[in-house]
Amino acid sequence: MKLRLGALLLTGLLLAGCDQGGNDARHIKVGVINGAEQDVAEVAKKVAKEKYGLDVELVGFSGSLLPNDATNQGELDANVFQHRP
Which family does it belong to (predicted)? Predict the structure, then answer.
């Protein structure tokens, strides 16, 4: 149940973070923390591909602030706990 809820929430986050102005509107680059969070993100990645045709690239990080820094610098489209469209 928790895995399904996590996958659903992450899919919503992925959709919210999609940038329509990029080269490929069907591709999104998302930062995740290595470990259990990344496991849930892998499930959401499959759902995003199968249901919505999105190509999700997951980028793993070992520190909790690193995904925010990468998102703020434009290296990522979103991360799983904070994003900027």
Answer: Belongs to the NlpA lipoprotein family.
